């Protein structure tokens, strides 16, 4: 530094310009790494966290919806895809649960993830699913929730917080024993 | 006049024919090399998952409908998003995937060239102090004065 301090203004200018470029380069690399981590390394949501509320297109028909539209209701968000065998296995149980408990206070909400639209629509028709269905073609919402596979379900309370996480297939017994008590306030 | 028109029509048809042929040349094998299986995170060509099988069925259906390679890829992007493409699009932030390596290479090449030039000027003992490179004149006097103040 003493050499720089004692050198001519031209030399000092080039040394400082070089340092500036080096710092700029390091910042650019760090910025890219941070961007990559933030965009890819989502750790998902845990019980007690607010659920992501990205808007998604409806699987059938036009328009889009967000979980924010369901504030004030309990929502069982179920990520599924037509090509996923366990999703087929749980479809009938979820539909029956919706028929028994669905209403102004609660609904199942299906999110068809990384699936072809036509396949998803056919799946909904085959299993006569009547609850709302959204489409997450690029899987970004599933990633925001931190899913590691399909199917996965998240119970969201009326304030938008995750109250239960069910990785993997759910069945009637699980829904009755784990989900239903929370809806009626019988389990904290 | 009509003979001239006919000749123009024949030439135009000959010129357009290769383009039309290229449009019809979409094949599953070629497209599989350019798109991903979004669930597996690998090229579709290498994927055997149920989702990959459905993706192949979708591509074959579009090819049977006479869609070009670009149209098939556009349809896949509409279904699965940009990440279905093995190569990122050359627009928006994805452009950095192409630009950053080139810029990094140029910077590295320039740094290497400057380093080699300096090394050659400094000779084989590049790190050794060069003769006559010490301070002189006012700098030498100031250095002596500074050193005198640090009498260890």
Strand order, sheet with most strands of chain A: 5-4-3-6-7
- Please identify, by name, the CATH architecture of the largest domain in chain A: 3-Layer(aba) Sandwich
Number of helices of chain A: 6
Poorly predicted segments of chain A:
none
Structure classification of chain B: mainly alpha
Helix percentage range of chain B: 55-70%
**According to CATH, what is the topology of one domain in chain B?**
Helicase, Ruva Protein, domain 3
Distance between the termini of chain B: 107 Å
Sheet-strand content of chain B, in percent, reads: under 5%
Can you tell me the residue ranges of chain B where pLDDT is under 50 for at least 5 consecutive residues? 16-23
- Whole-number mean pLDDT of chain B: 81
Q: Predict the CATH topology of the largest domain in chain A.
A: Glutaredoxin
Description:
Chain A contains 6 helices and 7 strands. In chain A, the strands form 2 sheets. Chain A has a 5-stranded mixed sheet. With 188 residues, chain A is α/β, with parallel strands linked by helices. In chain A, helix 3 packs across helix 6. Chain A is 44% helix and 18% strand. Chain A has 2 domains: 39 residues; 128 residues, Glutaredoxin. The radius of gyration of chain A is 24 Å and the shape is elongated. Chain B is an all-alpha fold and 152 residues long. The termini of chain B are far apart. Chain B has a two-stranded antiparallel sheet. Helices cover 61% and strands 3% of the residues of chain B. At the A-B interface, loops of A face helix 3, helix 4 and helix 5 of B.
């Amino acid at each position: 530094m003493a050499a720089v301090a004692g050198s001519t203004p031209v030399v000092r200018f080039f040394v400082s310009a070089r340092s500036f470029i080096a710092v700029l380069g390091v910042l650019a690399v760090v910025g890219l790494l941070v961007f990559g981590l933030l965009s890819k390394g989502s750790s998902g949501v845990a019980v007690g966290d607010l659920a992501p509320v990205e808007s998604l297109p409806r699987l059938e028909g036009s328009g889009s919806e967000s979980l924010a539209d369901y504030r004030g209701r309990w929502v069982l968000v179920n990520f599924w895809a037509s090509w996923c065998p366990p999703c087929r296995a749980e479809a009938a149980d979820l539909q029956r649960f919706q028929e028994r408990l669905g209403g102004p206070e609660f609904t199942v909400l299906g999110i068809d993830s990384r699936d072809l639209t036509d396949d998803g629509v056919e799946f909904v028709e085959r299993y006569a699913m009547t609850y709302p269905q959204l489409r997450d073609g690029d899987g970004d919402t599933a990633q925001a929730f931190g899913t590691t596979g399909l199917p996965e379900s998240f119970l969201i309370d009326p304030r938008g917080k995750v109250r239960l996480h069910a990785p993997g297939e759910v069945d009637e017994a699980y829904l009755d024993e784990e989900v239903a008590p929370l809806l009626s306030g019988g389990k904290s | 006049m009509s003979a001239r028109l006919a000749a123009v029509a024949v030439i135009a048809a000959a010129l357009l024919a290769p383009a039309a042929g290229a449009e019809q040349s979409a094949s599953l094998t070629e497209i599989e090399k350019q798109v991903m299986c979004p669930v597996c995170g690998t090229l579709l060509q290498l994927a055997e998952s149920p989702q990959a099988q459905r993706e192949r069925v979708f591509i074959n259906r579009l090819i049977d409908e006479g869609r070009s390679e670009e149209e098939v890829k556009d349809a896949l992007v509409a279904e699965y998003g940009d990440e279905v493409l093995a190569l990122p699009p050359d627009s928006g932030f994805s452009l950095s995937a192409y630009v950053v390596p080139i810029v990094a290479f140029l910077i590295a090449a320039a740094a290497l060239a400057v380093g080699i030039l300096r090394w050659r000027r400094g000779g084989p003992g590049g790190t050794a102090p060069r003769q006559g490179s010490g301070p002189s004149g006012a700098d030498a006097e100031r250095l002596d004065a500074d050193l005198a103040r640090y009498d260890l």
